[in-house]
Design a protein that fits this description.
Number of domains of chain A: 1
Helix content of chain A: 25-40%
Oligomer: heterodimer
CATH architecture of chain A: 3-Layer(aba) Sandwich
Number of strands of chain A: 7
CATH topology of chain A: Rossmann fold
Shape of chain B: globular
Structural class of chain B: mainly alpha
Largest sheet of chain B: none
Chain lengths: 213, 688
């Protein structure tokens, strides 16, 4: 509770089963590779406070189950996410092929403005690569995504991926493209900024109550 | 002693057959060749730094040994009781030596390889009565050190588990006692580390109590049908007390009736294994093999026998139920079963869980789990209005936290001792137990104002739900709370109807209609009775929506043929058939089973006496049972009334603040359950 930050962003990590979503999250939070992990059933999460462009931002990251049949359940996690890591495995074309479906999910269920970064994970397994960098980066361009190849094992580009996503969101806030005060933006003001602002949070806190549906 | 060693000596062979890439006699060609070949690149996740370690060539060589040792430890994992009483089981197992190995093997090895710091050997030697257990008990410490070491070394060669273990300690809490060498020991359940590692804190049951319980269970096994149909309350009570670890595997199979399924489908499992399987499923399964209880010795080794068996049964299931395929949440469930029984038995047990206990949980769309989430939330309103209100305000959907709990039957959530106790009750009483455990957990995590103070936001609340207070998960506490929570099958069914109605109104028809859920072993038993007499198609009465799937299963060869004869002979031992399981050889009169406990002549005398006494006691017990049932009914009436009153009060309390919502929700009044036959409702209430 003592931690102060300017903003809080809700992030998602999505993508097919076995692409290394949980490992990416673990690497980002703990700075090491998670060797013996369970596969995710339902949801896992973690959070970390990072410094982006002079602002402290708390990232609240929700890591989801990848198997297709969990989608109906994981959808409930999407609500109000500001950013997402869309993960595929560069050694598995199948995981790449399902990207479009994941993207649609994210944009329809979270928010059309959600900032998505495409992550080709398992970069360290280059010899077994099935998806080229070029191909994926073309896909990213077509769908207006940022793109990085990452390795949860070595840690390469992992932090970068999260930070890049956060930076983009901050920029959009600055430019007015994103309004943190809009419900479901996935962005909240932290304590630090609250002191300067005229308590926009109280409005937010009250909001959910009346709709006791 | 020689008896004990017999099957034990066999084990390396059988295991080796399985572990080596060349398929063993019974093993289908498809599977084993596929597994290793896949696990090699299955170093897939074993990226460069890892890859050299697993050196798969080493692996296959060592696996056999690992397997053998593992088998022993797993069962030793059943705890002190298992080892001390291993004598009982060993002797039983013995005649069936050649029978399907692993389970027999496990039992036999128990005493020999125990790594557990537990005091078994001492206990054994103190117990003068049990000569035969003395043997392996003594040989234990002698043989154990080198075996253990080389085993562990081999494991560390093959997977990263041990190394990463050191890292993981940090996440186990600062006061963790595990450090340095201690890391290399398994706890009594076979865990090498991880969050479910049990320290030495476990309370263990006194030996004589454990033995008494075993005898009682053996007696039940020998008259199983009778016990289930006439004295179910007692069976339930005994499950709640905890099934003796030495007999747990068998009890689960009896309770779920997977035992009969296995008998009726000889060779079916092998056949399924041999079938090619859909690559779509196989790929996912393979990705998950090394992700099940990676800290359990049985599953720690990449491509080890635990993972291979896991592959076998998960694959078999996708062929058995192609319409269902594979769901990732099935893997932990299957793994828990595998920790206790050989693959074929585990498979049929899994089938029962997926088809009878939790139909639809693992099906595409996961509607059943979402529906249960809603049911759970409705029940929470009664069990803990505070927690309910909090979650509602935070807009935390039930599926956000209960998915893993329910789908894995808490296998990944609770400390291991509690997992086993929960599973014991679950097999007997069905899904009700899952609901109750979840309710208890929530009540003790979010059920008071102070507790809620630290969960101001959604995220904090979720975090709290991911890190449940340890004391509420502690075995005895949890079981006590669970057994006293007034959530009955009838209540669940009522809520089911209500939520289903809501679902239809808001989301339309269910995409997938699972067969009817059976609440535990009595319901399964009753269904079986209804089906097996030459009733013909009228069994459709049971489950209209389920008909289709049942039909497809029939095609799979599940139901009818053998039963009638067996049905008639409900009384005495289903002996010979059971032998085939390799679990329970000679005619298991309860007393016969105790033979190995003492020197034989003496025991025989004792046995006869005991038999007499037993009969007398049986009569008395039946009388008492009847009385108790009366009382039980009265109590239930009373409780119902209380429940109603409480609801009234609750409503009043809520009414003040939320009169609007109350109307919307409507009282969960009797009209909800009205469409169920009230007779069955009363009976179901009596279960609770």
């Amino acid at each position: 509770m003592a931690e102060t930050y300017d903003f809080l962003f809700k992030f998602l990590v999505i993508g097919s089963a076995g692409t290394g979503k949980s490992c990416l999250l673990h690497q980002f939070i703990e700075n090491k590779f998670k060797q013996d992990s369970n596969h995710t059933i339902g949801v896992e999460f973690g959070s970390r406070v990072v410094n982006v462009g002079g602002k402290t931002v708390k990232l609240q990251i929700w890591d989801t189950a990848g198997q297709e049949r969990f989608r109906s359940v994981t959808r409930s996690y999407y609500r109000g996410a500001a950013g997402a890591l869309l993960v595929y495995d560069i050694t598995s074309r199948e995981t790449y092929n399902s990207l479009a479906a994941w993207l649609t999910d994210a944009r329809t269920l979270a928010s059309p403005n959600i900032v998505v970064i495409l992550c080709g994970n398992k970069k360290d397994l280059d010899p077994e690569r099935e998806v080229t960098f070029l191909e994926a980066s073309r896909f990213a361009q077509e769908n207006e995504l940022m793109f990085l190849e990452t390795s949860a094992l070595t840690g390469e580009n992992v932090e970068e991926a999260f930070l890049k996503c956060a930076r983009t969101i901050l920029n959009k806030i600055d430019s007015g493209e994103l309004d943190p005060e809009r419900m479901g933006s996935g962005i909240q003001y932290g304590d630090a900024s609250l002191r300067q602002l005229r308590q926009p949070r109280s409005a937010q806190a009250v909001a959910p109550q009346p709709c006791g549906c | 002693m020689s008896m004990a060693l017999g099957p034990g000596a066999d084990s390396p062979k059988t295991e080796e057959a399985r572990a080596s890439p060349t398929p063993g006699p019974g093993t289908p060609t498809g599977t084993p060749t596929r597994t290793p070949s896949r696990t090699a690149p299955g170093a897939l996740t074993a990226k460069p730094p890892l890859a050299p370690k697993p050196g798969t060539t080493v692996a296959s060589g060592v696996t056999a040994r690992v397997a053998a040792v593992t088998a022993g430890q797993v069962t030793s994992g059943h705890g002190a009781a298992a080892a001390t009483s291993a004598s009982t089981t060993q002797a039983l197992e013995d005649p069936s030596g050649p029978g399907p190995g692993p389970s027999g093997t496990c039992e036999a090895l128990v005493a020999v390889v125990t790594v557990t710091p537990a005091p078994e050997p001492a206990e054994n030697s103190q117990d003068l009565g049990s000569t035969s257990s003395l043997g392996p008990g003594i040989s234990g410490p002698r043989g154990q050190a080198p075996d253990t070491l080389s085993y562990l070394d081999s494991v560390s060669l093959m997977s990263g588990t041990l190394e990463s273990l050191a890292d993981d300690v940090s996440s186990m809490g600062s006061d963790s006692e595990i450090n340095g060498l201690a890391l290399r020991k398994t706890d009594k359940y076979g865990f090498l580390g991880g969050s479910q590692y049990s320290g030495s804190l476990e309370s263990s049951i006194p030996v004589d109590v454990a033995r008494q319980r075993e005898l009682k269970w053996l007696e039940m096994f020998s008259n199983w049908d009778k016990w289930l149909s006439r004295r179910f309350q007692k069976v339930k009570l005994r499950c709640r007390k905890g099934i003796p670890s030495s007999l747990r595997a068998k009890a689960w199979q009896y309770l779920s009736n997977s035992k009969e399924l296995l008998e009726q489908n000889p060779g079916k499992f092998e056949e399924l294994e041999r079938a090619p399987g859909d690559p779509k499923w196989l790929d996912v399964i393979e990705k998950d093999l090394h992700r099940q209880f990676p800290f359990h010795e049985m599953f720690a080794a990449r491509g080890g026998h635990g993972q291979q068996d896991l592959y076998r049964i998960l694959k078999a299931y996708t062929i058995y139920r192609p319409d269902e395929g594979y769901c990732q949440a099935q893997a932990p469930v299957a793994a828990v079963l595998l920790m206790h029984m050989p693959a074929e038995q585990a498979f049929w047990c899994l089938v029962q869980i997926c088809d009878k206990y939790l139909p639809g949980y693992y099906s595409a769309g996961l509607e059943a789990i979402q529906l249960d989430g809603e049911i759970f939330f409705a029940l929470l309103r009664r069990a803990s209005p505070l927690a309910h209100r909090h979650l509602r305000r935070q807009r935390i959907d039930p599926v956000l936290y209960m998915t893993e709990w329910f789908m894995c039957i808490f296998a990944r959530t609770l400390p291991w001792a509690s997992v086993l106790r929960v599973w014991d009750m679950f097999f007997c009483e069905g899904v009700k137990i899952i609901f109750r455990v979840a309710l208890v957990l929530l009540r003790h995590t979010l059920g008071s104002v102070e507790k809620l103070r630290s969960c101001q936001g959604m995220y904090e609340t979720m975090e709290q739900l991911r890190n449940l207070p340890p004391q509420c998960m502690q075995e005895d506490f949890l079981v006590h709370e669970v057994t006293t929570l007034p959530v009955t099958e009838a209540l669940i069914e009522r809520e089911n109807t209500a939520q289903l109605k809501k679902w239809r109104e808001t989301r339309g028809e269910l995409q997938y209609r699972p067969s009817r859920r059976l609440h535990g072993s009595r319901a399964i038993h009753e269904e079986r009775r209804r089906q097996q007499p030459p009733l013909g198609p009228s069994s459709s009465l049971l489950s209209l929506p389920g008909l289709k799937s049942r039909g497809s299963r029939a095609a799979g060869g599940a139901p009818s043929p053998p039963p009638p004869a067996r049905r008639a002979s409900a009384g005495p031992a289903p002996g010979p058939v059971v032998t085939a399981e390799g679990l329970h050889p000679s005619l298991p009169s309860p007393t016969g089973n105790s033979t190995p406990l003492g020197s034989s002549k003496e025991t025989r005398k004792q046995e006869k006496e005991r038999q007499k006494q037993e009969k007398e006691r049986e009569k008395e017990r039946q009388k008492q049972e009847k009385e108790r049932e009366k009382q039980e009914k009265e109590r239930q009436k009373w409780e119902k009334e209380q429940e109603k009153e409480r609801q009234k009060q609750e409503k009043k309390a809520q009414g003040r603040k939320l009169s609007l919502r109350r109307k919307a929700d409507g009282p969960p009044g009797p009209q909800d359950g009205g469409d169920r036959s009230s007779a069955s409702e009363a009976r179901q209430d009596a279960y609770f």
